[in-house]
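During the second year of the project, the team shifted from modelling isolated chains to modelling whole assemblies. The rationale, set out in the original proposal, was that interfaces cannot be judged from single-chain predictions alone. As a representative example for this report, we include one of the complexes processed in the last quarter. Its constituent sequences, exactly as entered into the pipeline, are reproduced here:
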Amino acid sequence: MILSSRDVTKRFGGLVAVNNLDLEIQEHVIHSIIGPNGAGKTTFFNCVTGFYSPDEGDIQFNNKPIAGLSPDRITHLGISRTYQNIRLFSNMTAIENVLVGQHPRLKTSVIDAILHTPRYHKEEGEALEEANRLIRFVGLIGLGDQLARNLPYGAQRRLEIARALASGPKLMLLDEPTAGMNPHETAEMMLFIQNLRDEVGITILLIEHDMRVVMGISERITVLDYGEKIAEGPPNEIQRDPRVIEAYLGRGAASGLGRISATAID
Amino acid sequence: MMKKLLSATKWLPKIPTGPNSRRALVLLAITVILVIPLIEFQQRAYWVRVIGYTGLYIILGLGLNVVVGLAGLLNLGYVAFYAIGAYTYALLASGHFDIHVSFWLVLPLAALLAGVAGILLGIPVLRMRGDYLAIVTLGFGEIIRILVTNLTDLTNGSQGLIGIDSPFLLGLELKTSTHFYYMILIFVIIAVFITYRLDHSRIGRGWIALREDEDVAQMAGINTTRYKLLAFAVGAIIGGLGGAIFAAWQGSIFPDNFNLMVSINVICLIIIGGVGSIPGVIIGSFALIALPDILREFSDYRLLLFGLLLVVMMIARPEGFIPSRRWQLELRTEEYAHVAPTGTAEKSEGS
Amino acid sequence: MEFDWSTFAEQLINGLTVGSFYALIALGYSMVYGVLTMINFAHGEIFMVGAYVGLYTINRLVDIGLYDTNRILAVGLTFLAGTAGAAITGVTVERLAYRPLRRAARLAPLISAIGMSIFLQELVRLLPKIGDAVTGITIAGKPIFPESIHISVVDFLEEFGGARIKTYPGIFGTGGFDIGEIHITYSRMIIVIVSLATMFGLYLLVRYSRLGKAMRAVAEDKDIAALMGINIDQVISRTFLIGSGLAGIAGVMMGMFYLQIKPTMGFVPGIKAFTAAVLGGIGNIPGAMLGGYALGLGEIIGVQFLPAVYKDVVSFSILVFILIFKPTGILGKKMVKKKT
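Output from the structure prediction step:
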């Protein structure tokens, strides 16, 4: 079990965004968190990554408590993330973005940097090689020197993943990685995420609204509503769970739920 | 780096802009700077003093550039570190307490004290942004100045400290302006070297990321606290060194040498010369420090023009005359949409 | 030790007097910050301009004798002129130096404001000199302007500015009255009364007038206010007008009370008033008044215990302290957490 949260609660003033959430993520799986808008998914992510401190409860990563640690500490421990609205360093090139992502793995000091010691040269050389490798891995060959903000949308998403990979994480939190993508790109992303798990051995925690993606690649799904867990299990169970269907239908049309039924029928 | 200096000359009007003439111009300027104190001509002493003084401001500008241009933290009280460096040397090498420590031993101490002060200033302001940061740093600078003026037992107050020892190098007493001219020149080169190397390293990248999006930088694993403090410390150390040299050169210092105007001068020359860029700081110093001094009739209007220039520059050209490519991009998002910064970082393959 | 009530009361009044200045200037800072989320660094200089315009006016009134025949009218006109001068300056500064930068990076308006502050101070200081240089231009040794014009321009500008310290005529005199053992000078009384009256007027304006409501709307959310049909530019201009006018009143009063004015007079009061505004919660109008009086009283009390030279350190330290520990101030408005 790579990540576990127990009784995690986060409040904002009078609003309880996450309410007594118990969650266990097993290693090497793709685990999705779904739920209507405002269900607390991103807030939970933010608690895991250290952006927020949970008001109650604790979170353990590889049996080490991490609730309340600063985000950079948590990244050093092996967790990284992408963002719902892409947050790249827009005025840096793609390669530079990835290089920054490697930060936890680089060790050279101020003195090394000023004096260009052999250690500095070696590390920078390796970092550059690794950055290039990651750029190739996410399919951005030839775009390394492009400014992040000039890249097309799909490329930006992939760059963000490359940057998240650069720190060498064991657990990656992906926040709506297929938002704004067409079906072709979405299918590619699905394969890519599975590849991450299979070849790189990373555990993936996913927030998604696109049910094809969720049902297609997740091994386990947790459903949140109003900050609480209302269902958990493998895709086929979740599809049929009446509470899940009610949560979505109760919130209105555009929730992709139609697709759940369609997939079930298919 | 040479490329940067060459591109700098692009902005000089009415000069043929072919790359060869630019290179020639830069080489000429460098030669003149290197050689001027050695040529006998009537105004020599004056020019040596002016350029030396400009050199001090270049050192200060490079130091502040690390804080403002790289890490993006606006510090309006930079003169405080200059003062700390100057007073450290003055107190340890003059008749005031009758201690006479060697200049070369005081230098690292001055750097250390200034660096510590930089960190002390940095800690409380870690969470501040923009306007508030500016005001607090300004307040800090003023507090230092008032303390220095009023702790008369320690600093001799507004009477200042006189009779500061000259440094000795290999038996030679350094006391003429020419001596200090070359010392300043060497320190300028050292400061340029240090800031350049830092800029193009993972530390520089960390600072840029910090400036772009602090939260994401933190998530990428950058300890933002450490990096901000590092920026403050490096800037402060450079400022402190400049102060020690200033004290040694002038032989006497007074609290009024360290007033708000110095901080504002340094900020101005960075902003007008070009934020974040080393050639910008150099050109900015010459334009704002040397030039008004030379144009004697206008030196009284210098501040008036500074003020006007700041306003005009912000509206017309906020990145300064010779900006670093990156700031140019940041401040002019629409216009430069398809240009990648050149020479700033590593090139990737296959592009 | 017997507690000296009369001295305490007199110091209290001193504190209120000083506090009045800070409060009036602080209001300008807060109002502008409210609508623009920007610290108007040049505000202290606008205060200074008010003092100078006031001085020019009152000197002219002395010349034509109105000062002696109808002192009250003369003082009133002086206030009017100083306020108007400051107000116009403030609006012009906004128009020229801040409005073009409204969508720019966060640092740009700040630096522009610093530039404006320096520019205004130097402009007032150098005014006669500039006039001298311009009208005394010679081409090949021969002056362009006739000497008479040269001299009159310089004299005229000499009245408006210049590096020397200038002095207001002693309007209030040193007279006062007593309540029991407490001596209250007329000057202090007038300052406090005028200030409170002005601030009350401002309160009415902000609370009940259309402009006041518009100002509050813009301060709350500029974009939505615009969508609701409020003319943002106009509201901002008027905010500057009023805020600067208040500073102008303070400037004239400063001249009348302390008698001496110089081009650099705006810097320290400006910073202190800013401290007061932050103390009360920047962007918050009652807070600015509260902060102003609190700072004034604090300073007067502090001077009882510390050597007088440290007075300014007290203010700076309070400023640094608040910004570090409670940036939202006493009556804090939400601090806008913007990216730099």
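Chain A has eleven helices and ten strands. The CA atoms of residues 95 and 132 of chain A lie 7 Å apart.
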